[in-house]
Write a structure and sequence with these properties.
Blueprint lengths: L1 H11 L13 H11 L7 H11 L1 H24 L12 H27 L6 H31 L4 H33 L5 H32 L19
Amino acid sequence: MSVKFEKETIRTNAPGAPTLVGGKHPIAHGIGEALTGGNTTTGYLAAYLQQLQKNPLRTKMLTSGSLAALQEVLASWIAHDRNKNGHYFTSRVPKMAIYGAFISAPLGHVLISILQRLFAGRTSLKAKILQIIVSNLIVSPIQNSVYLTAMAIIAGARTFHQVRATVRAGFLPVMKVSWITSPLALAFAQKFLPEQTWVPFFNIIAFVIGTYINAHTKKKRLAALRKKHYGDGRSTSGRTDDYPRRDY
């Protein structure tokens, strides 16, 4: 009783001090409630998860398309990859949005759904390890192969040999990143997250990794272009297609 009395006395004798809500600062409480929904269903995350339950594929398509477009803009800004007008909003941005919405999202929806069904109700350590192995040896290679193929086409590849060369050159480096991050992300999701939150969680992970890979690729391509066309000089604007187009 004395401890409670002391706490009440401190609150009363501190004019202008914010009143704690459930032991938390009101601003922190408000931010947390807005993001997660708190004890209500009005938070952004709660509303998103509700839409994910009602319209799973449509919600995933809108999310993936938006993140893919944002990823391209952010990667261009990091790599200083501008178009001929000096803007970071290049022609690849809408193409990336189309890829994210109509290729990446449906593919991920099917693969993750299959993975979750295969291991539904299996919570043993052996099952979790097996789920991680299946994800890294089957799911990730499929997704990364499709990703690299789409990136090659968006970059200007028009022949089978150009696409195959891009996939072969980028597959192992991308898989190395996946083999490092995917087990950690999946283990974290298995331990701490309900299955309905796996989609936004993996979307965030894929966005961060994709932005890094995209920006790194752009920097290497721009360095090669500067070396080829400008020697040691630097050009911060203007770009060409990664693959030369033929005139017919």
